[in-house]
Amino acid sequence: MRTRKPFLIFWPQYFDAKRSRSNGRRLPRKFTIDKVNLEEIVKAATNLGYHAEIERSYKYPKSWWEEPGRVIINAKGKKKSKVMLEIAKEIRKLQSKT
Question: How many CA atoms lie within 13 A of 22 on its CB side?
Fold first, then answer.
């Protein structure tokens, strides 16, 4: 089993504007995204210079019945909250381009 030390786990539910904080959202409403998927999180992370991988076999514990998947990001020692805000802003940029 790989150690999780340099890696941070990001679930799509962290960024979901439709969720409340008690249901898994981790960002303030002004940074949330209406529809986010694993590929967008990975693309945003790679645009920011992080190494990211998708793990599809895992399910978010608070909503185990929903579509599975999480993203593992090597954040190079940065705090999770800072990386999460950077990724949310980058996803918004990517969505505004299309």
Answer: 0
